[in-house]
Amino acid sequence: MLWLLVAGFLVIVVVQNLDVLTHKEALRLNLPLIEEYQTEPVQLFLYFLGFFFIGLLLSYFHGLGERFRARSLIKKQLKTISNLEEEVETLKNLPVHHEDTPSQETEIPESD
Fold first, then answer.
1. Can you say whether residue 72 is alpha, beta or left, with left for phi > 0 and alpha for psi between -120 and 50 degrees?
2. 60 lies in which domain range?
3. What is the β-pairing status of strands 37-38 and 24-25?
4. Does 3 fall in a domain?
5. Per the confidence metrics, is the pTM higher than 0.70?
6. HEC profile for the chain?
7. Which of 35, 51, 53, 112 has the smallest number of CB atoms closer than 10 Å to its CB?
8. How many domains does the chain divide into?
9. pLDDT digits (tens, 9 = 90+) for 11-32
């Protein structure tokens, strides 16, 4: 439902500002040591889309390292779980030796 509202809002903004988004502008880079560089005029919505996708790519590559670390941590933890499950199964199959321990019915004398 929220995505439908956001999409509807974006459609309204685009329709009401269509003349601004279709306006053509050129990017210019003017640094002191190099010659001035200027792109061909392009519609503004193409700049918006381009910078949006550049941001998506940057965030994807930024999260890529974290994803690899999380994947290796998950593999390590799954291996630990499997080892612990094997240990539990091994301990379940061990024979139980009863020692001479007092039962709950037997009273233990209290010392003063």
1. alpha
2. 18-89
3. unpaired
4. no
5. no
6. CHHHHHHHHHHHHHHHCHHHHCCEECCEECCCCCCCEECCCEEHHHHHHHHHHHHHHHHHHHHHHHHHHHHHHHHHHHHHHHHHHHHHHHHHHCCCCCCCCCCCCCCCCCCC
7. 112
8. 1
9. 999 899 999 999 999 999 998 8
